[in-house]
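Hi W., the pyridoxal-5'-phosphate complex you wanted:
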Amino acid sequence: MATHTISTAGPNIRTKLPGPNAQKILAGDAKYISPSYTRSYPLVVKRGRGVVIEDVDGNEFLDFSSGIAVVSTGHCHPEVVAAIQKQSAELIHMSGTDFYYESLVTLAERLAKTAPMSGPVRVYYGNSGTEAVEAALKLARYHTKRQGIIAFYGAFHGRTMGALSLTASKPQQRRRFAPLVPGVAHVPYPYVYRRPDGMTESQYSQGCARFIEDRVFKTIMAPEECAAIFIEPIQGEGGYVPAPREFLQELRKICDRHGILLVADEVQSGSGRTGKWWAIQHSEVEPDIITIAKGIASGMPLSVMMARANIMDWVPGSHASTFGGNPVCIAAALATMDVLEREGIRNAEVVGNHILQRLRTWVEKHPMVGDVRGMGLMIGVEIVKDKKTKAMTRDDRDRITQLAFERGVVLLGAGESSIRIAPPLIVTQEQASIAMDVLEECIGIVEKEQK
Ligand SMILES: Cc1ncc(COP(=O)(O)O)c(C=O)c1O
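Structure:
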């Protein structure tokens, strides 16, 4: 067992960043690693415990990104580590696609109890978010025998070819990869902050929903050829933008009218992050399929596509994955669910509300904070050049996250101009206050630079 301890309070930056050890690794990375990765700043991590990570030069940071919303129970939660250790000494792999083992069923039963849809469900296991989406896309076509798919502008569903065809977040994610999977139509997502002037939130939500029946179904896709509508109940990479409850309810009605499946992509918004198991549960809308990954196994690669049992009617051989539902990942997921059920989900709600309350005052107080939104510990802060025009400013947003990094708080951007606040669900009120003090200081610095 490691004897090294790292502090649990605030950040502790001892070197210039990147420090000397980090610089060596960065040089190797620049030489050997795929340049397709998007790194925001040179953070080279060595170890993590809870919300704190330590870099290779001994600097300590508060991780308010959770490795992109993944380490839901914090870094290396002792119960998760113990479960991984125990399982890896017993059985690492057998391939659930060809053989059986008990934990495949145990986790499926456990997930079924949290399902946002009523009635029996079945579970398909994959290794990453994009694989869960891929599986949902294939199942939707298989079950409905229809081809058309609707997804939203601003959506991020992954980068494999099927999921990428649904993704509509940034041009570099698609550039030079065409042709993608045909049959996908993108429609406006109800980005409430950016609705047209003079429109109420409700009118805007209704309008975005009506676009599907009034425009898409009357021009490019017959409704009886539409298999599924894919939606992130809170857009993640698109900027931490929640869909209004009324909009999700309208989508459900559209799906019911035309026999279309509603797929909730909960890869980022799920696993308790919003204060409920699944973000869609805040709207009381039942999806037909949900996709799960990221936070469900605290950093071990596991994804899940859960569907109403009657929908999962594909035959043996139609879809599978060698590693999907790996026993070690499942052990991590079961331990993760214990921690989240016992404390994480409730804590996400309590600390999330505390953060939201404070950040909402920034909209009045800070000229560059255009909008604050979210639920639980999935909070977006939109940075704007000008409150009236709402002009986006990627450069200023990036400068703010860079300054926060230099002060020991790890924050990532989302969308064109927003900052995502997504700490582990076990974050304390004190850690949240420290991190938000740093963020406010950094916003203040950039605001001064504008004058
Ligand atoms: C909503 C959503 N779906 C799918 C994905 C793809 O997940 P992965 O990167 O694990 O393939 C992501 C990743 O950020 C996501 O946020």
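The two ends are 52 Å apart (CA to CA).

W.
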